[in-house]
Amino acid sequence: MAMKVVGIAGSPREKSNSLYYLNCALEEIEKDGVATEVIALRERRIEPCSACYDCREVRQCTIQDDFGEIFDKMLAAEGIVLSTPVYVSSITTPLMSVLQRAAFVAHWGGKMLMGKVGAPIAVAQRAGQNMALSQMLMWYFFNGMTVPGSIYWNVCVAGTRGARDPEKDEIGIQTIKAFGKNMSGVMKKLFV
Q1: Which of 40, 51, 136, 143 has its CA 20 to 30 A from that of 82?
Q2: pLDDT in tens, 121-159
Q3: Tens digit of pLDDT for each residue in 150-175?
C-alpha cells in the first residue's frame, strides 16, 4: 500500500524557518518510502470558520476558498504534519482557520480523520512553542489521530527579527528528524 504524508506549512513567509523544519521531517519520512507533499498556506486563500454549521448537513465546508482542496488532501493522506511559527504563543491565523474548519467538517462527517497519524512542529525565536504545540496536539487528539513521539518535544528555535537560521538549531534538527523516522515507522505498523 502506498502511503502519503501531507505537510501543512503555516508560515506566511516564503522561505520560513518552520518550512525548513517541516522539510527536515518530510525528508526522513520519504527515506522510508512514504510519499510527501507540502501545502504552503501562504499560497492559499483561507477564511476563518464562520460558525454557520452548514457542515452538519452537507458534510463539507461551504465557504468558497482553498480549504476544500486542502481538506481533500488531508483525507487522502495517512499522515498529517503541521508546522508553524509561533506568534504570541500561538499558531498562525491561517493554520488555525484550517484546523478549526477541518475539525468541524471531520466531526460532523463521522470523524473523518480518525486513525490517521500526525504531529506538530512549532518554531520560535525564544519561547511560546509549547503553547502552540498544545494547540496542534489538541487538534490531533480531538480528531482521534495517533501522535508519535521523538527524542524531545517537536519545538525548534530560529530567527531573530526574521532571521533565517534554523540550521543552527542542532537539537531541533535531530528532534525533527527522529520524529520523521518515528512517524513513518508508526505508519508502517498501522497501515501495512
Answers
A1: 51
A2: 999 887 888 899 999 999 999 999 999 998 888 878 776
A3: 888 887 877 655 556 788 778 888 99
The answer to whether the CB of 14 falls within 8 A of the CB of 160 is no
In sign, the C-alpha dihedral spanning 26, 166, 139, 96 is: negative
Residue written as grid cell 543552527: 168
For the chain, what's the residue count?
A: 192
In 3D, which of 118, 90, 145, 128 has the Cα closest to residue 26? 118
Domain boundaries, the chain: 4-191
Full-prediction pTM beyond 0.90? Answer: yes
Rounded Cα distance between 9 and 36, Å, is 13
DSSP output for the chain: ---EEEEEE--SSTT-HHHHHHHHHHHHHHHTT-EEEEEEGGGS--PPP----HHHHHSS--S-SSHHHHHHHHHH-SEEEEEEE-BTTB--HHHHHHHHHHHHHHHHTTSTTTT-EEEEEEEESSS-HHHHHHHHHHHHHHTT-B----SS-SEEE--SSS---GGG-HHHHHHHHHHHHHHHHHHHHHH-
Distance CA 159, CA 84 (A): 13
CATH architecture of the domain with range 4-191: 3-Layer(aba) Sandwich (3.40)
